Amino acid sequence: MTIQIGVLGNADSWYLADLARAAEERGATIRRVDYRTLTANVGHDARRFSAGEVDLLALDAVIVRTMPPGSLEQVVFRMDILSRLEAEGVAIVNSPRAIEHAVDKYLATAKLASAGLPVPETSVCESAEQAMFELERLGGDVVVKPVFGAEGRGIVRVSDPYIGLRVFRTLERVDAVLYLQRFIDHPGYDLRVLVLDDQPLGAMRRYATNGFRTNVACQGRAVAVEPTDEEVRLAIEATRVIGARIAGIDLLRDAEGRTSVIEVNGVPGWQAFQRATGIDVAGRLIDRIMPKD
Question: Checking CA distances to 243, which of 96, 129, 196, 227 falls within 20 to 30 Å?
Answer without folding.
Answer: 227
